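Problem 12. The chain below contains 151 residues. Write out its predicted structure in token notation.
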Amino acid sequence: FQKYVYSIAPKPPTGELRRAGYRLVFNATPNRYEANIEALRHFIDSWFDTGLQMGDDGSIADVRENSAAWHAGLAPGMTIVAVNYREFSPGIWNAALKATGSGERMTLIVKQDQHFQIVRLGYTGGPKYPHLVRIPGTVDMLSQIMAPHAR
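Solution.
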């Protein structure tokens, strides 16, 4: 009970998802939750690809441990002011992230306090968003769990 309820798992519970009739996949299409939360909260969630969560202004809010951003030395409190020598905007970030899918790497100009530095992000692979996909021929336990119950 302690392990499954209170502990933070380093990896998603893929075995449990499979037993519930689903598998976890990542692709370049934002899921509905990600798309809505990014629009409502005005932030960019590159958690599953570069390892960054940041504001629409490029301010870094969080960095995932052992991600490309982590290994590049990025940290909360820094602000990305340029991507591939173009002024930062969500659109510029998304275009550069898509280009990493064909092997291009991102060069960032980052500001921390009054200091600027050039950071090369060692990530190739394009945008990645999580999705649950039904496994054909299995019982859909998640739908049963989430279904409204009559009283």
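Discussion. Strands lie at 22-27, 43-46, 52-55, 60-63, 79-83, 86-87, 106-112, 115-121, 129-134. Students who got a different answer should revisit the alignment rule from Section 12.3.
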